[in-house]
Here is the input.
Amino acid sequence: MANLKFLSVMVVALSVQACSHSAPPPNAFSAEVEHGGTLKTTAFPLNRPGPNPGLKGRTIAVDSIEDLQLAKGEVVLTFDDGPVRHNTRSILDTLARHDVKATFFMVGQMANAYPALVREVASAGHTIGSHTQNHLNLARINTNDARQDIEAGKASLERALIPLDRSVAPFFRFPYLADTPKLRDSLARQGIVVIDPTIDSKDYWVSTPDQIKNRIMKALRKRGSGIILLHDIHKRTARMLPALLATLDREGYSIVHFVPGPDAATKVAPSF
Ligand SMILES: [Zn+2]
Here is the structure.
């Protein structure tokens, strides 16, 4: 039985780092529109009603944090703390309906409890990054213990993926977004990319699905793009996702998929 104690301390004010990269210029999309019997190409600005090419966006190969830059209108979905029964599968179904991919930052003890679900997420083509073994606040424990928890988390995910002959992506997210410069350095030396969110859905607070969706959309309209922090352990998040994707689609956003770049794995050192 997994120790799920960490779930009870999830209600922690998370600070989200503002993205320091400036986004490339806006991406208006174009479509052929009928004008009096003849077809003309018309540009539709983002966030305006009109036909759009669907939610599926670019796939970005990520070797370092420099590769995490998004253009205006681009969104990355990230789901932390799972996998967990029911919710994770419901999220997979919703993502499949829109043919879009996400990144799941899984906790080792959850992977040990539900290894088949880890494989289901991987088999559906989503990216799996690690999020420690025990979801401790790494900024509050000594560096060696923190490194061990990171390693153990990765090892649990690798074990679950053995039958698929797949590897966990060299992507990491700090629990509670609580980092230290030393740990960031260690991870960078191993070729592990820390993927911080730029939009916090705050789905760990008691909210209705609509409130979560509105919070995300408000932040997104302001920023223009973003890496969204979500949690597949919450039922409200799974219930909210169809409406979020419908809104993103209607407003012309696209969902970008982060995958490991060709250099990411080769940079991995044998240990810390
Ligand atoms: Zn977490």
Notes: DSSP finds seven helices and eleven strands in the chain. Residues 143-161 form the longest helix (19 residues). The chain has one domain: 52-267.
